[in-house]
Amino acid sequence: xxxxxxxxxxxxxxxxxxxxxxxxxxxxxxxxxxxxxxxxxxxxxxxxxxxxxxxxxxxxxxxxxxxxxxxxxxxxxxxxxxxxxxxxxxxxxxxxxxxxxxxxxxxxxxxxxxxxxxxxxxxxxxxxxxxxxxxxxxxxxxxxxxxxxxxxxxxxxxxxxxxxxxxxxxxxxxxxxxxxxxxxxxxxxxxxxxxxxxxxxxxxxxxxxxxxxxxxxxxxxxxxxxxxxxxxxxxxxxxxxxxxxxxxxxxxxxxxxxxxxxxxxxxxxxxxxxxxxxxxxxxxxxxxxxxxxxxxxxxxxxxxxxxxxxxxxxxxxxxxxxxxxxxxxxxxxxxxxxxxxxxxxxxxxxxxxxxxxxxxxxxxxxxxxxxxxxxxxxxxxxxxxxxxxxxxxxxxxxxxxxxxxxxxxxxxxxxxxxxxxxxxxxxxxxxxxxxxxxxxxxxxxxxxxxxxxxxxxxxxxxxxxxxxxxxxxxxxxxxxxxxxxxxxxxxxxxxxxxxxxxxxxxxxxxxxxxxxxxxxxxxxxxxxxxxxxxxxxxxxxxxxxxxxxxxxxxxxxxxxxxxxxxxxxxxxxxxxxxxxxxxxxxxxxxxxxxxxxxxxxxxxxxxxxxxxxxxxxxxxxxxxxxxxxxxxxxxxxxxxxxxxxxxxxxxxxxxxxxxxxxxxxx
Amino acid sequence: xxxxxxxxxxxxxxxxxxxxxxxxxxxxxxxxxxxxxxxxxxxxxxxxxxxxxxxxxxxxxxxxxxxxxxxxxxxxxxxxxxxxxxxxxxxxxxxxxxxxxxxxxxxxxxxxxxxxxxxxxxxxxxxxxxxxxxxxxxxxxxxxxxxxxxxxxxxxxxxxxxxxxxxxxxxxxxxxxxxxxxxxxxxxxxxxxxxxxxxxxxxxxxxxxxxxxxxxxxxxxxxxxxxxxxxxxxxxxxxxxxxxxxxxxxxxxxxxxxxxxxxxxxxxxxxxxxxxxxxxxxxxxxxxxxxxxxxxxxxxxxxxxxxxxxxxxxxxxxxxxxxxxx
Lengths: 666, 326
Prior knowledge:
The structure holds two protein chains of two kinds. Chain A is of the alpha+beta class. Chain A has helices at 2-14, 19-31, 36-53, 66-73, 82-96, 105-127, 133-166, 168-184, 190-199, 206-220, 250-265, 268-282, 286-298, 300-306, 325-328, 370-378, 401-416, 431-444, 467-470, 497-509, 596-607, 614-620, 624-641, 646-654; strands at residues 186-187, 225-235, 240-248, 318-319, 350-355, 362-364, 418-420, 424-427, 455-458, 476-478, 546-550, 561-565, 571-576, 579-586. By secondary structure, chain B is α+β, with helices and mostly antiparallel strands. Mean pLDDT of chain B is 75; it is low at 116-179. The radius of gyration of chain B is 21 Å and the shape is globular. In chain B, helix 3 packs across helix 7. Chain B has helices at residues 10-15, 25-39, 91-99, 120-126, 133-160, 162-171, 186-201, 322-325, and strands spanning 43-50, 57-63, 72-76, 83-84, 111-113, 183-185, 203-205, 209-211, 217-219, 237-239, 277-282, 286-291, 297-302, 308-314. The interface between A and B is large, with 80 and 76 residues.
């Protein structure tokens, strides 16, 4: 009986009740009669999974026509769909008659799926030699979806227009709002900007640019973001990360903050409820998709293998991450950890989406926690390209590569996102809005430090800076606030003196602190300096932190000006006339003058302060003088022992080209 | 990267995050063709770019007969006139280059001075050459003798351009004790650095070069690039430098399809540290290997056409932290 129940539950939820399958299942039941007892316990579990998936499902599934149900199952494109897949599985089970088919059901399903893919690959070899067809197909799918959506939008728009003609006054306002929604999302015009980037030598290849632009437009239609831009690429050892930077829209921010508050007040069950609400707002048809989500979690391990090959539906391009990272903190007991900054403030002002392959899902990174930034500063590691990868570094990094990536992104954006001076001004009128946010925040978080956030808006009265001046660092300013040694942005806005003093002390203490300090002698007077002038940046090895170049020295009047960062190799900004933009393409590593092991030594010293007496210090290293003496002594000794006469040595080096064969891997 | 395929690989270089200004591509192309015709080179390659803190160096090389031994390097800053790279240097100078950890200044006549004060890292690394300690000391003995020779040479140069030296001293105010003995001209440093990078990170696909029975090395005329089944194996990539770190043991691990005329170079699969090559396939078309030891060195191949090339784009600094980073 238990098997029948499963079948029922499956057929209930999946809306299959075809005669054929029933027959098949009865046969299975006969086969697996003997180990029914084992199965029954599992079956209840499974059933509960399915039933909890869709509470609202049972009411209306009986009045669906069978043919319609089959139609739904056959809806997927291509020659493989759920219906045929189930058919194949049952065929397989009947043919092979294994002992416990239910236990290995997923396995069979997986094996079958593999054969489908295999077929595909074999097929392509015949026609297009060696070009990965799947990749092209996926991209094409994206274009198709985009086109479809575009057409729908056009229709909607036309309909609205017609409506307006009929009932002009009523609809007028609604249309306005609709247009507003579409207009407020600022999508970076990647095609245009990429032209500048190409001039600067850092451009994206054409196919990448096109797909990224498409994705960004897609994201804009979610109506969750205020602005979207392509942040850059980070190379990993195995794969590459593409990163998109988005800013939450005000409504979305509010919703998130509300949720954080409510969660901190109520119990977990309320959180669950909340989750449902967000899902409702996210997707058009929650009833259809929600159970699927539950199902996914049950069979996620299958998905892991399949994700690479499955063609994603466009709805799932963007994997929004609605769990709150803000609450996760208090469970780590250490007192020193600061709570992360709230959404939309400081280092978490923007949200970042990453992916390894452009035509697969984009994954949202959680908001950055201050201790991750602090830890990331101490380590130096290449990314591997797998988000789940643990980080085994010496000074411990508490988290996986996801957190490391997010921390590095925060560091890079804070120190390298720049614009020419005067292009942006700090928005004053936003204050009221922001104070509300900070109120929300103070109720939630432990520390109630006030933060005033300067929101940047385009300065409409800008005059373009001449190209020659654009190569001068003093004409560029930081767009983002500095992240201090604790991993949070300090009180932002233009720096006042008392603060700059404090900061300088910090910079002295921690010699290699991140980027800029506000020197008092340099003019920090003007508002147009936003978050600090580039001229005040500290570099690692006594040269300037930035380098300004004209793209073509042969036509300086009409050439773009680039600012390249020496501290973060790969970060750059381009400006031409009134256009300006920045991007990062690199390994995500800071250029360090200090070698890593020097830092290690300091760390060890700090770890065991008890051993820090004179004795150990003497053992550890010679003083400089001693070292010199020792050297000269050695040299003298060797000089006397030198078996070759001098002239031989000289002629040896006078000779022609000398190939350097051995030098050490120090 | 061969000048002839230069234009075709620009897109691939973009994927790899390389940096040639679009506007300078035609200029480089023309000037390199001129370089080839003037020097009667068989072919000319754009080797790479050294980023400096002011004007970058572009580096190219050409060869007349032997594509491995006869390479002649050139560098330029204005992309129009190519200067020949110095080829003579002493061990002292190479030692110094190894110790310098700063970026290039961007002026070939700039004199880098290593003060005695700021060399913590150098001190620790000096005696780290474990296998042949006596040899090292022997060399140092020689160095001292050479110092005289070098300083003599150096004085000749200084007498010509004494002003520069003074400017330099004024500029490097941070170095407390400028010691003239330990100074190196940036041109020499550039040459040595490039030789190092070339020796360690320049790779070619297997089958690109082959050796004729009489010992001359030529490019295989019908070589089509590696295909998808071959790029996954590090044994299919060979160091262009013939003397590269040859293993001491006998060749007992010879590949099964050993071919004497092709396999006369060292493959990269035994390089130290393990995992210093990161190879990936980008945007379904470009196969790119990054060398992590010399950040910026990369081998690139377009899988559809089989065009391939080597390029360096970086600061000319070795990544000594690599073992901690992978």
